[in-house]
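Request: How about a record?
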Amino acid sequence: MPTLFYFQPQGETENQVLSFASSHSGRVEATVAKPGLINQPGNIFHWFRATILWFVASLPNISVVDISAAMLDQVLNGFEKDPLMNDDLVRIGQKALREMKG
């Protein structure tokens, strides 16, 4: 069964994807991922920008490694909830990475 994951503020694209999934029930699943700022590990500029945005605008952030692990985990093991918020993605991704390391 194909799985759809996408990143987009709620709007027309989100509505179309969810509508498509519901009209193809049993053949396609879709969920919404709503991460904060996606950071690249090891990049001090990205870390600094994310830290400033977190302090100024309370904008959450997530590592590209964590969000990738979370998305793969959810596609392989089923969606935990809808939508997946930044905190959910961080938790799921870090758990998946811990499990992978053994």
Observations:
- Residues 3-101 form one domain.
- Strands lie at 3-4, 29-30, 33-34, 37-39, 61-63, 84-85.
- The longest strand covers residues 37-39.
